[in-house]
Amino acid sequence: MHAFDVLGDPVRRRILDLLRESELSSGEIVERVGAEFGISQPAVSQHLRVLRESGFAIVRAEAQRRIYSIDAAPIAEVDRWLAPFRRFGDHKLMALETEVARGKRRK
Fold this sequence. Notes:
By secondary structure, the chain is of the alpha+beta class. It has a single domain (3-106), classed as Winged helix-like DNA-binding domain superfamily/Winged helix DNA-binding domain (Arc Repressor Mutant, subunit A). Helices cover 68% and strands 13% of the residues. The chain is built from six helices and three strands. A three-stranded antiparallel β-sheet has the order 1-3-2. It is elongated and about 60 Å long.
């Protein structure tokens, strides 16, 4: 599955948002994401499988629990692909920075 197909799903993006904050067990992810999206444990597990198989998530066994974390490599790859397109939005930020600097000089 292509990276943008993986990231195109709001449930998978939410799981990655949660994992960005900290590692979580599969049970914690199922509880939080299931409640937020109103989906079942098997549905959340399917999204976790897609994240694992596409390389966005890593899972390790800890006794009976499965602990998930983010693998940064695919995210870095997406970031590299997006880099040339940032120039289309950066000019607005640069203009804002210029105006802020002008305002500071006037004071």
